[in-house]
Amino acid sequence: MVAEYGYTYDSFNRVASRTENGVTTVYTYDANHQLLSDGTQTWTYDANGNRTLTGYVTGAANRLLSDGTWDYAYDNEGNVTGKTHTVTG
Questions:
Q1: Residue 73 in contact with residue 60, Cβ under 8 Å?
Q2: Do residues 38 and 76 share a domain?
Q3: Same domain assignment for residues 38 and 57
Q4: How far apart are CA 79 and CA 73, in angstroms?
Q5: Is 1 a residue whose pLDDT tops 70?
Q6: Residues of the domain holding 86
Q7: What is the torsional sign of CA 77, 83, 52, 25?
């Protein structure tokens, strides 16, 4: 079976919809051109434009501090120096 795809674009040249084998997904965006929804999932953003996800924590320089499973440590250069499992330590 060969998959069939089709795309439409809005006036900002963003993907507005995608059709795969007759099933259409519609995409919505905010005024900053950030993806808000794909019809099944929605996203929000913080003041810096980072996507906010449950369980994710960011810190200075937008470094990921925790992803809900792991906590991350960084050196002054921004390199990951360690990670700790949030449940088992």
A1: no
A2: no
A3: no
A4: 8
A5: yes
A6: 53-89
A7: positive
**What is the Cα Rg of the chain in Å?**
18
pLDDT tens, residue by residue, 9-61: 999 999 999 999 999 999 999 999 999 999 888 889 988 888 887 777 888 88
- Number of domains making up the chain: 2
C-beta separation of 75 from 63 below 8 A: no
Structure tokens at 46: 């913080």
Cα–Cα–Cα angle for 71, 73, 79, rounded to 5 degrees: 130
pTM of the model: 0.58
Which tokens in the block code for residue 35? 């993806």
Report d(CA 68, CA 74) in Å as an integer: 17
The tally of CA atoms less than 13 A away on the side-chain side of residue 1 is 5
